[in-house]
Amino acid sequence: MGKLPTGLMIRLARYGCTNRPFYHLVAIRSSYARNSPKKYEQLGTYDPLPNIYNEKLVSINFERLKFWLKRGATPSKPVAQLLGLSGFYPAHPMSVVIARRARLLAAKKAKEAEEAAAKVDEEDAEKL
To answer: What's the CA gap between 84 and 43, in Å, rounded?
Structure first.
């Protein structure tokens, strides 16, 4: 293989339809557009929409990923988060922040639902 260009990135290239995204993990030069056909290699796929089992599917060829990382490719932030969640990289700091925000939002919704149920119970008790 000849000399590899500098500025390599591992990024997500968006495919799929409107309102139904699907991503390919690709090794590409950082100066190229996101979906440029000039990618060097497809390293995996990512489906961000949950399936019937509430799973977001990711497949990554870790051998080829290691190859490109050894050649100096740097992952984009979303790819670094995926690699952190898969255990390949240390957990990305934003993963912790996103999980905390989701927990707080779920707790807030549960509290609101509990208050609404209590209010309905009070109104039913007053009617009797």
So the answer is: 16
- Enumerate long-range contacts of 26-33, CB under 8 Å, 24 or more apart: 27/64, 27/68, 27/73, 29/5, 31/7
The tens digit of pLDDT for each residue in 49-105 reads 989 998 889 999 999 999 999 998 999 988 988 888 888 877 777 777 888 888 999
Specify the pTM: 0.69
